[in-house]
Task: inverse folding
């Protein structure tokens, strides 16, 4: 399911003295089956854009195409549930949304709301829990007895159990330990690769954007600053620093390495593994 | 949806009213609330109206802010107005619809009571519009200072007040966030039967309480970590200063009270 944003504008507290422009003239596409990263400085409008993707916020100007539906400014929209079932959002610190007595009930909350039968929802809860790497006996426990990291996983499972076609992630690994971070990001990547789920990742981590995304949208001061492939985006370091971002560590290392070497490597490497391969090939040559 | 709340928000600006001592403003409001009840005829209400208008102009608050603040209470004002219109039986009958009859006295009384509400809300919302919450609590703490002699924990009460004021926006933000997160999981807060809607609030309230308690505990730990131990011997960073204009404002109010006494019937 493709999502297309066209000239979207949104203001908070519109029509009151506290009105504040959040995003304007935002246009970009999220192609089906792809992995899109949205990067930008704090306050650049990333989270506002994200809330438009399942119409939690409606554009004040412009329009959004979500699959076959078009959400245009100024129209009353009914029956948004269908969109919300197909576009699942994992918010920042999703563990704050847990509320049920047991983990199982909490994970089932989404599917049951979207009309899935109870038996089917429980089945999905089991699957989703396995996906986020928690043992099955956790299902019977209270989500409030779990550790922070486990609560995060349960909350993510709650969205996965909705079996959305598009998975939108807002800083899903913030505050997790490195291992948990890696596991969760790998899990999302495999969902995208193996099940064809469309992924949208909002992140501060240039490393994650470089490693996983196939398209990057750069936001700055409520506007789309640039869109492109990771290679295109990260090959222009000064442009990134100009808006308060930076290149991934790997790219920084490669640049320093090239400086010492006196000549550029074949291409821009986005992951340490790739860079290591490139450098060892160089040793083989000489 | 939470961002539309205007009532009780502070708008930074520079005006005589903004610069007034919060204690003077509190005393002023207290006095005003009392003398509003002195008005009972056309002249006294007109005088009160003009007086309120002058205060609003002095405060340099845009009218749209005040109107936005009035919106949530307009229903209550209308309700009391109609209550009086339909249930006061004084003076001539103006109209009769079925078993309902409207008397002249009722209409007048309705207008007066509605006006009284209106003026009270305007002036009290001026207090919160022109005074940062922290100053309001400072003012209250200072005004009730003498009660410390009779062992009333004034400082602690003021602290409680400023903490709760401080966390209102935070809680509203939090509510908005959790609401959106649950809506993304298919929760529906705006439609369905009443019992369904009440049930729909649980996924909102539980996380809200959990985070509020967590926040309270964190705050307590943070305060103790910085050596907080109550009001004893504590000095203040913001000192209140009473100026000529504060005395003048109160004299002005006393003058108004005298005029109202003279004009009321």
Result:
């Amino acid at each position: 399911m493709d999502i297309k944003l066209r000239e979207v504008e949104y203001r908070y507290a519109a029509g009151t003295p506290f009105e504040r422009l959040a995003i304007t003239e935002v246009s970009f596409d999220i192609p089906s089956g792809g992995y899109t990263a949205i990067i930008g400085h704090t306050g650049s409008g990333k989270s506002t854009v994200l809330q438009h993707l399942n119409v939690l916020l409606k554009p004040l100007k412009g329009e959004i195409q979500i699959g076959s539906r078009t959400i245009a400014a100024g129209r009353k929209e009914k029956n948004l549930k269908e969109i919300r079932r197909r576009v699942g959002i994992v918010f920042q610190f999703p563990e704050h949304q847990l509320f049920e007595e047991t983990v199982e009930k909490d994970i089932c909350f989404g599917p049951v709301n979207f009309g899935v039968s109870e038996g089917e929802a429980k089945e999905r809860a089991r699957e989703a829990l396995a996906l986020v790497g928690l043992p099955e006996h956790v299902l019977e426990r209270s989500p409030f007895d779990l550790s922070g990291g486990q609560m995060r996983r349960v909350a993510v499972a709650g969205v996965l159990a909705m079996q959305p076609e598009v998975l939108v992630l807002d800083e899903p690994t913030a505050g997790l330990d490195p291992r948990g971070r890696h596991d969760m990001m790998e899990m999302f990547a495999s969902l995208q690769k193996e099940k064809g789920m469309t992924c949208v990742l909002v992140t501060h981590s240039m490393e994650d954007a470089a490693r996983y995304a196939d398209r990057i949208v750069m936001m700055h001061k409520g506007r789309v600053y640039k869109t492109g492939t990771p290679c295109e985006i990260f090959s222009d370091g000064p442009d990134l620093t100009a808006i308060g971002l930076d290149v991934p560590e790997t790219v920084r290392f490669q640049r320093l390495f090239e400086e010492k070497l006196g000549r550029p490597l074949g291409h821009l490497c986005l992951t340490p593994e790739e860079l290591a391969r490139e450098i060892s090939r160089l040793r083989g040559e000489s | 949806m939470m961002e539309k709340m205007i009532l009780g928000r502070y708008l930074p600006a520079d005006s005589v009213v903004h610069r007034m001592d919060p204690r003077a403003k509190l005393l002023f409001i207290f006095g005003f609330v009392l003398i509003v009840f002195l008005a009972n005829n056309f002249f006294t209400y007109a005088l009160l109206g003009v007086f309120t208008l002058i205060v609003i102009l002095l405060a340099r608050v845009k009218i749209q802010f005040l109107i936005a603040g009035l919106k949530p209470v307009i229903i209550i004002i209308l309700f009391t107005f109609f209550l009086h219109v339909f249930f006061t039986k004084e003076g001539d009958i103006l109209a009769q619809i079925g078993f309902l009859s409207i008397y002249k006295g009722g209409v007048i009384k309705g207008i007066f009571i509605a006006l009284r509400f209106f003026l009270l809300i305007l002036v009290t919302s001026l207090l919160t519009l022109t005074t940062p919450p922290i100053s309001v609590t400072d003012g209250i703490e200072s005004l009730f200072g003498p009660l410390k002699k009779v062992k009333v924990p004034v400082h602690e009460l003021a602290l409680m007040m400023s903490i709760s004021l401080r966390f209102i926006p935070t809680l509203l933000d939090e509510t908005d966030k959790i609401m959106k997160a649950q809506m993304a999981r298919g929760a529906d807060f705006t439609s369905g039967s009443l019992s369904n809607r009440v049930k729909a609030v649980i996924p909102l309230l539980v996380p809200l309480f959990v985070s509020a308690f967590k926040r309270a505990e964190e705050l307590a730990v943070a305060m103790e970590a910085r050596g907080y131990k109550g009001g004893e011997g504590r000095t203040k960073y913001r000192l209140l200063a009473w100026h000529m204009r504060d005395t003048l404002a109160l004299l002005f109010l006393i003058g108004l009270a005298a005029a109202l006494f003279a004009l009321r019937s």
Chain A has two domains: 3-247, 248-286.
